[in-house]
Amino acid sequence: MNINIALLWDIENVTPSSSNNLFIQGLWDYAESLGRVAVAYAYADWSKPGFRNLGPSLAEYNCTMVHIPYKKTRKNKNGSDMQLVSDTMDLLHNYDHISTYLLITGDSDFRPLLRSLRKSGKEVHIVCDFKTAAQDLLNQADSFKDYRELMPDNDNDNDIEEEEQQRRKPEVSYSKEYWYERLAEAANLLHRDKKTCNMGTCKIKMKMLNRSFDEKKLGFRQWSAFIGAAVKAGFITMEKTERDTEIVPGKGYRQDRGSLQLAFKKLHEILTVLDGRKEAEFHPYSIVSLRLKEGGIDLDALGFTKFKLFASSAEARGLVETKIEDFSSYIRNTIIPPSNT
């Protein structure tokens, strides 16, 4: 039985810059891994040069391009959102054979729409920009991905032979204490950014930072059980506020401790050396990953089967910035990670 997919892309919210056509290919590959794309909509001001160039590629996939004239007003933004919601509700009520919805957006305004889809028994998957996505939106999705995960490239760590070797390796397992520390780190970052840090938002942040994390693999049947164990181990505490109960890093957590933090620090040092006396510049993945290996950093031991995944994890923490041009990936420093003093 075919799983029918509806794809709806809010281009103003998720815009992969100069590599749009690469993203379109990766997006449809991902959509087709979920099922058969029955219908696709893309919303943008198609008179803008950056979006107009997408037309031929989208047309190849029979995507309906909905024109939303651009104006620098909130009202115009709401018009775009309302059109996407209207089209989705039309599909929901008139095309019951569509069981799965793939939304390419991270806009919190779509939370009511996700609730309606879930009430109707539909699966909802989100592709977004982790840098700007609303965590309370992601919390309502069946799964979510950063759009950079879908962009194909030809970097050395992506060839078929190496991927086959990685599949043959035993899966790296970590102690519960390692994941308690990652949980405390997620809470620390939420507080640093002055964002709500309750159980729901912290869960999303945890999984954004650590794409391989799954509390069930650790023997916890529920997220709340994992939280309780982390509290008992002293890595976090729960503090009541006027509106909610917040997760706060405990005495067992140190921001600068652990092999993962040392790897991030080494990454920063390598990029700084490559920059020389210049401001932060983009450097090829192949060069940086080789330098990291020569520096004694074993990404496999840290749970990253590819340098691309390690770079994505660092970017989710705000430590680096990445980009893809002509099927090649590049990385540069953004901020200085904390020292080990």
The total number of structural domains is: 3
Which class do the helix and strand fractions yield? alpha/beta
Give the CATH architecture of the largest domain: 3-Layer(aba) Sandwich
Q: In oligomeric terms, what are we looking at? A: single chain
- Summarize the amount of helix as a percent range: 40-55%
Total beta strands? 11
Q: Tell me the name of the CATH homologous superfamily of the largest domain.
A: 5'-nuclease
Using only C-alpha atoms, the radius of gyration works out to 21 Å
Strand order of the largest sheet: 3-2-1-4-5-6
Quick one: CATH class of the largest domain?
Alpha Beta
Low-pLDDT regions = 156-164, 337-341
Shape, per Cα inertia axes: globular
Topology pattern, helix = H, strand = E: EHEHHEHEHEHEHHHHEEHEHHEE
Report the end-to-end length measured between terminal Cα atoms: 58 Å
Question: Can you offer a commentary on this structure?
Answer:
- It is a single chain.
- The chain is α/β, with parallel strands linked by helices and 341 residues long.
- The protein folds into three domains: 4-150, 3-Layer(aba) Sandwich (Rossmann fold), CATH 3.40.50; 176-249; 259-333, Orthogonal Bundle (Arc Repressor Mutant, subunit A), CATH 1.10.10.
- The chain has 13 helices and eleven strands.
- It has helices spanning 20-34, 49-52, 55-60, 74-94, 111-119, 135-138, 160-168, 176-192, 199-209, 223-232, 259-275, 285-294, 307-316, and strands spanning 4-10, 36-44, 64-67, 98-104, 123-128, 143-146, 236-240, 245-249, 283-284, 320-325, 328-333.
- The strands form three sheets. Strands 3-2-1-4-5-6 form a six-stranded parallel sheet.
- It is globular, with a radius of gyration of 21 Å.
- Residues 156-164 and 337-341 have low confidence and may be disordered.
